[in-house]
Amino acid sequence: MKEKNVQPLRTAKEIEDMKWALRRYGSERDYFLFVFGINTGLRVSDIIPLTVGDVGRKNE
């Protein structure tokens, strides 16, 4: 199997393009997970097991 070369998104334009593509071609879930990951800096492997109860409000 050929090894995949995955590069990070480095510019704001690349991030906006990815958000646009996810809104157009992906699901709401994928879009949310991408935006959540970008805004929190968490890895996908850290985000996937989260539940709604794990994500609380700051002011509680």
Order of helices and strands: HHH
Query: CA-to-CA gap between the ends?
Result: 49 Å
Main pleated-sheet profile? none
Number of helices: 3
Instruction: Name the assembly state.
Output: single chain
Could you give the count of β-strands?
A: 0
Helix content: 40-55%
Return residue spans where pLDDT drops below 50 for at least 5 consecutive residues. none
What's the pLDDT, averaged over the residues?
89
Radius of gyration: 14 Å
Approximate shape? globular
What structural category arises from helix and sheet content?
mainly alpha
| Beta-strand residue percentage | under 5%
Describe the structure.
There is one protein chain. The chain is an all-alpha fold and 60 residues long. The longest helix has 14 residues, at 12-25. The radius of gyration is 14 Å and the shape is globular. The protein is 52% helix and 0% strand. The mean pLDDT is 89. It is built from three helices and no strands.
For the structure shown, list the relevant keywords.
single chain; 60 residues; mainly alpha; 3 helices; 0% strand
Fold blueprint:
Blueprint lengths: L11 H14 L2 H13 L3 H4 L13
Summarize the structure.
The chain is mainly alpha-helical and 60 residues long. It is built from three helices and no strands.
